[in-house]
Amino acid sequence: MRRLTSSFLASVLAGSLLAPLLAAAPATAAPARQIEYTEWDAPAGLQALPAGVDRRAWTTPWTSPGFALTRLIPSWSARTPGDSQVRIEVRGRTDATTSSWDTIATWTSGDRHFERTTYGAQSDDLASVNVDTWVVPAGVTSYQLRVTMVRAAGQKTSPRVDMVGAMASLLPSVDSVRTSRPGPGRGVVLDVPRYSQMVHSGHYPQYGSGGEAWCSPTSTSMVLGYYDALPKAKAYSWVPSDHVDPWVDHAARMTYDYEYDGTGNWPFNTAYAASLAGHAYVTRLRSLREAETYIADGIPLVASIAFGEGELDGAPISSTNGHLLVIVGFTQSGDVIVNDPAAATRAGVRRTYDRGQFENAWIPKSGGTVYVITRD
Q1: What is each CA distance from 296 to 48, 164, 262, 356, in whole angstroms?
Q2: Is 13 part of a structural domain of the chain?
Q3: Is residue 38 part of a domain?
Q4: Are residues 146 and 272 in the same domain?
Q5: What is the pLDDT of residues 192-239, one digit of tens each?
Q6: Which member of 4, 127, 139, 193 has the lowest number of beta carbons within 10 Å of its beta carbon?
Q7: What's the chain's Rg over C-alpha atoms?
Q8: What is the model's pTM?
Q9: Residue 248's pLDDT is what?
Q10: Residues 83 and 205 in one domain
Q11: CA 271 remoteness from chain centre
Q12: How far apart are CA 236 and CA 25, in angstroms?
């Protein structure tokens, strides 16, 4: 098990010691934003199903982040050959009670035998589910994840789970945050390829019709392209040859949530990315200063933002209730450089946004949510 607060994730991944730098420059006023990501690598019992066994479950230990978490987002990396799948569930407890198990998702890497899905609110006791996020209004002090592998009776090939993790958070409800001071990412720009979601408008209504609906798989694909980890041409051979960036159409299909009716499910995107790059998960950060540690270590970030008209100067769209883009670097003065897939063409994808405006479109709106995708 690896337990990492998001402040230290980049430095642990790169083997550097940036904690004093981060601690010296808090980005927001009190109260503190409490975030912890915990991961279990290659859980025992989930590497393969023995012959004659078609179902097996594994449960994490009770895990306490040290605060009363009110949100939890799981992540996983799995393989589901043939007619097989994995199910992710979560429950929590307080000093007084333990909640029921809530299902976050049943997931497969393909869609031939089963349509990957979430399960709606499930608001029966302490918590409810909002697509990919477990919501606990009063908070719980600890949680467990349960992962179940299932395959069709008689199938020889087995699903396997390489990693399961969870981001737990307790965040203040704020309308705005103080702009963070620039740090180690100043002047660093990563060579992330540029893809536009808008060139896919009208593609595949069964997977959301492209265009404005495909910001998440387009952003995920840009990071995979950066790592030279896009799927092989055979995987997207079903896409017509005249489609620009056909791997984006494929990513939309492989991340589509049939209950949510969209491609924006956060852990569905990281599970897809993990199958190609090697490691990916959803977490939250406290500021762009924390994001800079990733950029300085060569790790682009997919960030979830939302903004109203006039709140993000230079954006290709006037407003959005939820949008994904890629943080690729920073100017010398600390403004954020992004690949924004909402641009009409590849040529307009690279943008520079004001640091303070971006943080206020990101931190209060999605809690600072990011996809962290790395090459193993």
Answers
A1: 37, 26, 32, 20
A2: no
A3: yes
A4: no
A5: 999 999 999 999 999 999 999 999 999 999 999 999 999 999 999 999
A6: 139
A7: 20
A8: 0.92
A9: 98
A10: no
A11: 8
A12: 45
* Short-list 147, 80, 67, 69, CA closest to 110: 80
Spatial neighbors of 66 by CB under 8 A, at least 6 apart, are: 34, 36
Task: Give dist(CA 215, CA 70) in Å, integer.
Answer: 27
Cβ neighbors of 373 (< 8 A, separation 6 or more) are: 220, 223, 224, 227, 270, 273, 274, 277, 279, 280, 299, 300, 302
- 213 and 92 inside one domain: no
Segment 132-158 mean pLDDT: 97
Residue 312 sits in the same domain as residue 361 = yes
- CATH code where residue 127 lies: 2.60.120
Cis-peptide into 31, omega within 30 deg: yes
Task: Please count the structural domains in the chain.
Answer: 2
Nearest to 90 by CA among 34, 19, 146, 140: 146
Cβ contacts of residue 138 below 8 Å, gap of 6+? 68, 70, 94, 126
| 209-215 CB contacts, 8 Å cutoff, 24+ apart | 210/249, 210/252, 212/317, 212/342, 213/262, 213/263, 213/264, 214/248, 214/252, 214/263, 214/341, 215/264, 215/323, 215/324, 215/325, 215/341, 215/342
Structure tokens at 298: 């060569």
The single-letter code of the amino acid at 36 is E
Separation CA 13–CA 2 (nearest Å): 11
| Residue 73: half-sphere exposure toward Cβ, Cα within 13 Å | 27
Residue ranges making up the domain that contains 343: 198-375
With 0-12 / 13-18 / 19 or more C-beta atoms within 10 angstroms meaning exposed / middle / buried, residue 156 is exposed
Structural tokens at position 283 = 């977490």
Name the pLDDT band for 10 (thresholds 50, 70, 90).
Answer: very low
Split at pLDDT 50, 70, 90, the class of 349 is very high
